[in-house]
From TrEMBL:
It comes from the Bacteria. It comes from Micromonospora marina. One of its GO terms (biological process) is proteolysis. The lineage of its organism: Bacteria, Bacillati, Actinomycetota, Actinomycetes, Micromonosporales. Residues 480-694 form the Peptidase S9 prolyl oligopeptidase catalytic domain. Belongs to the peptidase S9A family. This is Oligopeptidase B. Serine peptidase. MEROPS family S09A. Keywords: Hydrolase, Protease, Serine protease.
């Protein structure tokens, strides 16, 4: 390894005063993105990281090649039927992005067509080629991809920097030409009118909060577009979508804890929106159209949510359909002509429940593995007797099934192939085993852990391990399969997921006990999981690496301060490590909308003191820290690049004996590199660093 000294960030004390507390931030200057000193510092950090990891170049290339070899590069998704077409996406060996296609349904064709080795389907029509759109750009991302109900128009939007500000365009699928009426600076979410004459879309305010829904008439300039709804309450976001029945355009307005939904008949796009139920503080609800009624999934007197309905013609009282059952979290309802499918979670696992219309009967779809993830896939057709679902586990590759709602039969349409690695060995799930274990938190709460490892791995503490966590926004880290992860498992590394409070794995209570003034439970739960892995003989602290991203990056910074002895290394990707500074600034993207998640430290001294007591940047000490790899992106709008940059600078200042690396993607956003090969290289970089830390490089 190089002996080159790390970069030293200049110190420019900036004073911050809140609630009588004065803080001097010596690295606040790094928030100035267009300052040449900022870019120079980030480039110097990148050069240092590259030099410090140069000895891993061969391993990185090896890991990348293992992922590439195991992936079927020329591939084709299972086609999804919508009216007279099968829609699907293809990938081509050597190309970074997908090719979006459709092919007309042929007479008598009921099952999705199959392609040999991912080759194009006979008679296919290319709707959008991501590789052509991305040509000449270092970054490319699709926001909208929305075909009109008559199949003629494609609304799509593109981002070439990673800041998630998209340019919206409309393509005529009969001619292949894009119309001149493009709209800059749009957000996610579009909806078509029934006759495809009108497109609804969303824009953001200066703080990147989606606050306006617009109506655009196809063939006109965007300067003629009309605002349909403007949300002035800074706590709320807006979204727009077309119901599966294609009867209503839905405007969804929500904060972290409160909802309001408005609808417009899709057959009358210039009509005035009508509210389904006025917002009430603390009441969340979502709407799905079904025949003469709106289905309402809500938490009014139902912590884990209940399902009700109201008239679609004159929304009023909510009539119960599925009562609240504590411990069974209802997450979504999808309506089809003769069936409802409810997505739920219970006992830490996801599930699907089927309710035939007009019957008191209902049933859950069964799956054999002890831990898994299942959910509905794209199901655009309202009148259907089959639904498409996706299934995976820590050992089972992503699998697509069609479920017959009448016969209750599951048909496997495709399991993502895992090709032999460079050693020629085929993937065999029997070579691996997955477990559900439980740690005991400081307050006596049992915290679930999901693990996967090679079946022949010794259980004597000698194996290295990676423990992953998130724990915010009620987001659940349900088990998932990863081809890149096989490179770790086959080198004897255990992979574990800590299902800590702040996530939603065990229902709404699990979330509530890891937010606001209970946020520290998230961090202590994770440390408890790490300690349990050692106590139970899975691994040892000197060969355990923690990993998390975004809010999970906040988790990484917090546990580095809380229990630095528990880990030999920490990977923090796009980490929210300067949370207090960001949440104090309402001009920043997302801040005001985040106050219901973290609290409002600007107005509440108790929240201020509590956040200051755990925010990673505020709590760096002279402790002996584990090695830290921080990865960020210059154009990230969600977690700004300067948070990890400041964090690493402060770590170097206060605990200079540590090994800290900062890697900044200079042309990407929150999700990192956009192309699949670039993403594989990024993952190979991280995994090579992990293997080096645990002595398996």
């Amino acid at each position: 390894m190089t002996e080159t000294p790390p970069p030293v960030a200049k110190r420019v004390p900036t004073e911050r005063v809140h609630h009588g507390d004065t803080v001097l931030d010596e690295y606040a200057w790094l928030a100035t993105k267009d300052d040449p000193d900022t870019i120079a510092y980030l480039n110097a950090e990148n050069a240092y990281t590259e030099a410090r990891t140069a000895h891993l170049a061969g391993l990185r290339a090896e890991l990348f090649e293992e992922t590439r070899r195991r992936t079927q590069e020329t591939d084709l998704s299972v086609p999804t039927r919508k009216d007279g077409y099968w829609y699907y996406t293809r990938t081509v060996e050597g190309q970074q992005y997908g090719v979006h296609c459709r092919r007309a349904v042929r007479p008598g064709e009921t099952a999705p067509p199959v392609s040999a080795d991912g080759a194009p389907l006979d008679g296919e029509e290319v709707l959008l080629d991501g590789n052509q759109l991305a040509a000449g750009h270092d970054f490319f991302s699709l926001g909208a991809f929305d075909v009109s109900p008559d199949g003629r128009w494609l609304a799509y939007s593109t981002d070439f920097s990673g800041d998630e500000r998209f340019t919206l365009r409309i393509k005529d699928l009969t001619t292949g030409e894009s119309l001149p009426d493009e709209v800059p600076d749009t957000f996610y979410g579009t909806a078509w009118s029934s006759d495809a004459s009108t497109l609804f879309y969303v824009t953001v305010d200066e703080t990147w909060r989606p606050n306006r829904v617009w109506r655009h008439t196809v063939g006109t300039a965007s300067t003629e577009d009309v605002v349909v709804h403007q949300e002035d309450d800074e706590r709320f976001w807006v979204g727009v979508e077309l119901t599966r029945s294609e009867r209503f355009v839905v405007i969804d307005i929500h904060s972290k804890i409160t909802s309001e939904v408005w609808v417009i008949p899709a057959s009358n796009p210039t009509g005035e929106p009508a509210v389904v139920a006025p917002r009430r503080q603390g009441i969340e609800y979502a709407v799905e159209h079904h025949g003469h009624r709106f289905l309402i999934l809500h938490n009014d007197g139902a912590e884990d949510f209940a399902l009700a309905y109201t008239s679609a013609d004159a929304p009023g009282e909510w009539e119960p359909l599925i009562p609240h059952t504590p411990g069974t979290r209802l997450e979504a309802v999808d309506a089809f002509e003769h069936h409802l499918v409810v997505s739920l979670r219970a006992n830490g696992l996801t599930g699907l429940r089927v309710l035939p219309v007009g019957s008191d009967d209902s049933w859950d779809i069964d799956f054999p593995e002890p831990i898994y993830s299942v959910g509905l896939d794209a199901n655009p057709e309202y009148r259907t007797k089959e639904v498409r679902l996706r299934y995976t586990s820590l050992v089972t590759p992503d699998s697509v099934y069609d479920y017959d709602l009448l016969t209750r039969e599951l048909t496997l349409r495709r399991q993502k192939p895992v090709r032999p690695g460079p050693d020629g060995r085929a993937y065999d799930p029997a070579d691996y085993e997955q477990h559900r274990d439980w740690a005991l938190a400081d307050d006596g709460t049992r915290v679930p852990i999901s693990l996967v490892c090679r079946r022949d791995l010794p259980r004597d503490g000698s194996a290295p391990a990676v423990i992953y966590g998130y724990g915010s926004y009620e987001a659940s880290m349900d088990p998932w399969f990863s081809i890149a992860r096989l490179s770790l498992l086959d080198r004897g590394v255990i992979f574990a997921v800590a299902h800590i409070r702040g996530g939603g794995e065990l229902g709404r209570r699990w979330y509530d006990e890891g937010k606001l003034l209970a946020k520290k439970n998230t961090f202590t739960d994770f440390v408890a999981c790490a300690r349990h892995l050692v106590k139970a003989g899975w691994t040892a602290s000197d060969r355990l690496v923690a990993r998390g991203a975004s809010a999970g990056g906040l988790l990484m910074g917090a546990v580095a301060n809380l229990a630095p002895d528990a880990f030999t290394g920490i990977v923090a990707q796009v980490p929210f490590v300067d949370a207090l500074t960001s949440i104090l600034d309402p001009s920043l993207p997302l801040t005001v909308t985040e106050w219901e998640e973290w609290g409002n430290p600007l107005d509440d001294p108790e929240v201020y003191a509590y956040m200051k007591s755990y925010t990673p940047y505020e709590n760096v000490t002279t402790a002996e820290y584990p090695a830290i790899l921080a990865v960020t992106s210059l154009n990230d709008t969600r977690v700004l690049y300067h948070e990890p940059a400041k964090w690493i600078a402060r770590l170097r200042s206060l605990a200079p004996a540590g090994d800290y690396l900062l890697k900044t993607e200079m042309g990407a956003g929150h999700g990192g590199p956009s192309g699949r090969y670039d993403s594989w290289r990024e993952e190979a970089f991280v995994n090579a660093w992990i293997l080096d830390r645990v002595g398996r490089a």
